[in-house]
Design brief:
This protein is α+β, with helices and mostly antiparallel strands. The protein has a single domain, classed as Alpha-Beta Plaits. 33% of the residues lie in helices and 25% in strands. It has three helices and five strands. A five-stranded antiparallel beta sheet has the order 2-3-1-4-5. It is globular and about 55 Å long. The termini are far apart.
Length: 124
Amino acid sequence: METPKALEFSIDIFKPDTIPMSRLAQYMSELAALYGSEPLVHFKELRSGSAILKAVVDASATETVESRLRLVHDQAAPDDLKRAYQSLNGMLKSDRAVGEIKQAQGAVILAFPGRNTPVQKTIE
């Protein structure tokens, strides 16, 4: 049996003992939508450092989940994927945070600029 692959989503301004439970639930809901393959992605733990939400992806879904994450910024990305990314980034911006998804070994797969998202100015 293949080993599940771990993905970690970190939020720089929170720690496990400072993130409100309701906000954690919102982040987890949007992460589930972003990852897709929902029956094959499981919450593992909330780790210290920043608030680091660790999930494991069943081996049979690893390539599907990682492919989705690589598509986020592609013009042809599915609408549900774009919406989940934008929602997570908006939440981070609202919380004045930045975030990233990385492999347990440390390679960043997807960054969320959050508070550093450029503000688009309208010309009147």
